[in-house]
Design brief:
With about 325 residues, this protein is of the alpha/beta class. The chain contains twelve helices and twelve strands.
Length: about 325
């Protein structure tokens, strides 16, 4: 039976969750939840995303709440800690929320910050957590020259990178950066995120040989089944990551990570630790660097506590109605 808009609207709740530190320019995370036969699902495309992109996220949420359940192959997921673009003095306070961990992903190329600040942040992480592996994530915010400059500065500071995620924005820039690193004899691995989840062909970056690793996020890719398909077609190591969701949204990412045949790299699914509030009394918080895939029980008191202001709730409901129309016109329905 096709899912009807009325089924989503009948349980739809819009919340605004506070963040512990500014992240991607945000101090709170708005999202919409609805309940299906499988439990609660989350629809949380960022507010600036166009309708076509937000509709892909909606399809993923409907599949998660109403569709078939994939076969899970593992019962625990290793996760990294995620460090926003904070000053060195704030690092320990942020990372302590993750408990013990073996990998840290450090945000760099934040608007208004310099490469010297990025380097200082990473050096402070290295000094505070000398056994931790370090990843960088620039969200496509650097030019090729700036990325080469930062990688060179890391090398001179004897900072080893596990990989550099989306240092530059375009496929051509990723190819150019990869060639330049090879010419320099630099073996830094490049990971693609936006070039996977925002591309019309999510494996184009793999086909072109422009990345060594793919970052997979279930919601932007259209759901768990689609992300599993992309991982198989790409034939590259993958990292399952979050889009700063609540624990409900993270549980979809956890389902994806649990279903992948090969998963050797720590997943970026521990980001509930960045939230100062959640929609459940039992958030998906990492324990000793691990998470256990499970269904999230939403708490009505939390929904009330973090309910978005009326005008923001109205905005999300109108957006849901419009995107559901696009979703219905696509003819895609959950399995």
């Amino acid at each position: 039976m096709p899912v009807e808009l009325s089924e989503l609207l009948s349980t739809a709740r819009v919340v605004s969750l506070p963040l512990r530190s500014r992240f991607r320019g945000l101090i709170e995370r708005e999202l919409l939840l609805f309940e299906g036969p499988n439990g609660w699902a989350e629809w949380s495309p960022f507010t600036e995303y166009p309708d076509a992109e937000a509709t892909v996220w909606l399809g993923a949420a409907i599949e998660f709440g109403f569709g078939a359940k994939p076969v899970e192959l593992r019962d625990k997921i290793a996760v990294n800690a995620t460090l926003p673009a904070v000053a060195p003095a704030a690092i320990a306070k942020v990372l302590n929320k993750f408990g013990s961990f073996r990998t840290v992903k450090i945000k760099v190329a934040e608007a208004g910050q310099s490469r010297a600040e990025d380097l200082a942040r990473a050096i402070a992480v290295r000094d505070l957590y000398p056994t931790a592996r370090i990843r960088l994530d620039a969200n496509g915010g650097l030019s090729v020259a700036e990325a080469l400059e930062l990688i060179g500065a890391f090398r001179r500071a004897d900072l080893q990178l596990e990989y550099f995620e989306q240092p530059v924005a375009s496929l051509d820039e990723m190819l150019e950066l990869g060639r330049a690193l090879k010419d320099q004899g630099d073996e830094t691995l490049l990971a693609a995120d936006e070039l996977v989840r925002k591309a019309s062909d999510p494996i184009a970056v793999a086909k072109a040989g422009a990345a060594d690793i793919l970052v997979l996020k279930a919601a932007p890719l259209g759901g768990v089944f689609k992300a599993i398909e992309i991982a198989g077609l790409a034939n590259l190591p993958v990292v399952v990551s979050s889009a700063l969701e609540s624990s409900v949204g993270l549980s979809m990412g956890m389902q994806l990570a649990a279903c992948l045949p090969e998963l050797t790299l720590d997943s970026g699914l521990g980001t509930a630790a960045l939230l100062a509030g959640d929609v459940t009394r039992d958030p998906l918080l990492p324990q000793d660097g691990w998470l256990i895939p499970r269904k999230i029980e939403v708490d009505s008191g939390k929904l009330q506590l973090f309910a978005a202001e009326d005008h923001r709730g109205d905005w999300w409901i109108e957006r849901l109605e419009h995107c559901f129309k696009l979703y219905a016109e696509s003819g895609i329905q959950p399995i």
